[in-house]
Design brief:
Blueprint (H helix, E strand, L loop, with lengths): L12 H14 L8 H18 L5 H26 L4 H15 L2 H16 L3 H9 L11 H48 L11 H26 L7 H11 L8 H12 L3 E2 L2 E3 L2 E4 L2 E2 L10 H28 L1
Antiparallel strand pairs: 1-4, 2-3
Helix pairs in contact: 1-4, 1-11, 2-3, 2-7, 3-4, 3-7, 3-8, 4-7, 5-6, 5-7, 5-11, 6-7, 7-8, 7-10, 7-11, 8-9, 8-10, 8-11, 9-10
Length: 325
């Protein structure tokens, strides 16, 4: 049992359901004070301060993660608790707005749809620009098929980070758990790169993100297979088999589970040649060797349906667990 005064921070199935509906209907709220933008600005400011102090190695990276996580968990929790001192509905509104702001299913689907909309209009340059907002690679080398593959890869990878993990950590830790996860995710995206500047300094943020995504990534693999049972043209058995066999092909301990499972479910190969800053960085494919590469409008539409349904399923399952608790 949590103390009564912390109850406004506890996970709520109704709040989670409302946040999902808002996310799908409206998308990510675009405003300057968006929590993720503020978290990112805080990371940048604390990084500058630590580097000025000469703390640019492993120790500085650990301090960065601790300071930013503690600050943002405290700030968001304080905002919800402060609202709870007012009318009964105030804490609920603030709580729901935080959860809605930190779910990313609707925005992910919209970003990927921009790729297909541009391709449908014959605008390859527009599709490349839309892909460039989703993945890091030389978009000017992509043809229409490669644009669609990149979009599907982004859908599958971000399903874990943007939806399943967020829902899991909200169900486990309420507002503080969700905010902590978003701090870890933002740290990973900003300082988790394996470059000379961040190899040591970004280690703590990257490992925190790995740990927090570890179980949700494997749950996503299972959920994709379950969803593939009902999405037309998808294969549940292949989602399970390809995810299990090929998840380690991609770098990192987590992203390969959802990407490989999606390739199996769609019965299409993904990834292929990727160029970055003029250099060919990989030619690896994931998926069954006898499946064709993803390339068509139909492939992307099935991927959108698969990812959307899996994100909704993950949220509904979390709501059911919370309601039964």
């Amino acid at each position: 049992m949590i103390p009564a005064w912390l109850a406004p921070l506890a996970p709520s199935p109704l709040v989670l359901g409302a946040a999902l509906v808002l996310d799908l209907a409206i998308g990510d709220p675009a405003y300057a004070a968006h929590p993720v933008r503020l978290i990112g600005a805080t990371i940048a400011a604390v990084e500058r301060a630590l580097r000025r102090l000469g703390l640019d190695g492993y120790g500085g990276g650990v301090l960065l993660a601790i300071v930013v996580a503690a600050l943002w968990v405290a700030l968001t929790s304080a905002a919800v608790l402060a609202a709870a001192r007012g009318p009964a509905w105030a804490a609920l509104v603030v709580h729901a707005f935080v959860v809605y702001s930190l779910l990313a299913l609707g925005d992910l689907l919209r970003h990927v749809w921009r790729v297909e909309r541009a391709l449908g209009a014959g605008d390859l340059e527009g599709a490349r620009a839309a892909v460039g907002a989703l993945v890091v690679r030389d978009a000017d080398r992509l043809d229409a098929a490669a644009c669609r593959r990149a979009a599907i890869e982004s859908l599958a990878e971000n399903l874990t980070d943007g939806v399943t993990s967020a829902v899991c950590w909200y169900a486990i830790g309420g507002v503080p758990g969700l905010v902590l996860f978003k701090v870890a995710s933002t740290l990973d995206s900003m300082v988790g790169n394996r470059t000379p500047r961040y190899l040591r300094f970004g280690w703590a943020g990257a490992r925190l993100d790995d740990v927090m995504n570890y179980v949700p990534a494997r749950l996503t693999w299972l959920l994709l297979a379950i969803t593939a049972l009902v999405v037309p043209g998808c294969a549940a058995a292949d989602a399970l088999a390809v995810g299990l066999r090929q998840h380690a092909i991609l770098p990192g301990p987590n992203s390969g589970w959802s990407e490989a499972a999606a390739a199996g479910a769609l019965r299409r190969r993904l990834v292929g040649p990727i160029w970055l800053r003029g250099a060919l960085v990989t030619e690896v494919w994931i998926g069954r060797p006898d499946d064709p590469p993803a390339s068509s409008h139909g492939d992307l539409m099935r991927a959108l349906a698969l990812i959307a349904a899996t994100g909704v399923l993950a949220t509904l399952l979390a709501m059911a667990v919370l309601a039964a608790a």
